[in-house]
Amino acid sequence: MAEGELPAVLILDIGGTHGVLEDLAALLKKHFHLITMKEFLGNKEEMSKKIQSVFVFECRPTIDRELLESLPNLKVIGNSGVGVDHLDLKMISSFGVKVTNTPHAVADPTADIGMALMLASARRLVEGNALNFLGPCYLFGILHYCSDRDDVSESIFGM
């Protein structure tokens, strides 16, 4: 790597179905030279020497032995999720490559969902929702006439 040149990072793609989100790619470009898998496969010999890191977004690109063997200067694999279950850590470490992840990236959404599930369970929200929106229905074998959708405010049913 020449003086002042940004370190190269291999990513699957930018945008599209499985690529790195465009906002995230813009942030990465401030600190790294991004090389897509298509660019890498198109010129493996030259690109393989430049790449020092792989950024795994939504479990892609797949990190396998063939990829690791083709990246002699690879130092780190950065995973954009909490877990690393999809990575073969023993194989990766046998190449002298470190693995990192973002353990706190989804802490707040996880807490939000946990609270929502506890409230829904405590207040029987799912059952109340079914009673409210299905119309005449049977609950425990007894016919119930559920209220009309128009009668319910937009607040959480049962709170």
Structure in words:
Helix content is 36%, strand content 17%. With 159 residues, the chain is of the alpha/beta class. It folds into two domains: 8-100, NAD(P)-binding Rossmann-like Domain (Rossmann fold); 106-146, no CATH class. The strands form two sheets. Strands 2-1-3-4-5 form a five-stranded parallel sheet. It has a two-stranded antiparallel sheet with strand order 6-7. It is elongated. The N and C termini lie far apart (60 Å). It holds the Pfam family 2-Hacid_dh. This is HPPR reductase. Keywords: Oxidoreductase. One of its GO terms (molecular function) is NAD binding.
Strand order of the largest sheet: 2-1-3-4-5
**SSE string, helices as H and strands as E:** EHEHHEHEHEHHEE
- Looking at CATH, the homologous superfamily of the largest domain is NAD(P)-binding Rossmann-like Domain
Q: Give the count of helical stretches.
A: 7
Radius of gyration: 25 Å
Instruction: Identify the CATH class of the largest domain.
Output: Alpha Beta
At CATH's second level, what is the architecture of the largest domain? 3-Layer(aba) Sandwich
Number of strands: 7
Strand content: 15-25%
Q: Averaging pLDDT over every residue, what do you get?
A: 84
Structural class: alpha/beta
CATH domain topology of the largest domain:
Rossmann fold
Described by the principal axes of the CA atoms, the overall outline is elongated
Point out poorly predicted stretches.
151-159
Number of domains: 2
The N- and C-terminal alpha carbons lie at a distance of 60 Å
Biggest beta-sheet profile: 5 strands, parallel
Domain D-isomer specific 2-hydroxyacid dehydrogenase catalytic: 22-113
InterPro entries: D-isomer_2-hydroxyacid_DH, D-isomer_2_OHA_DH_cat_dom
Organism: Leucopsar rothschildi (Bali myna)
Protein name: HPPR reductase
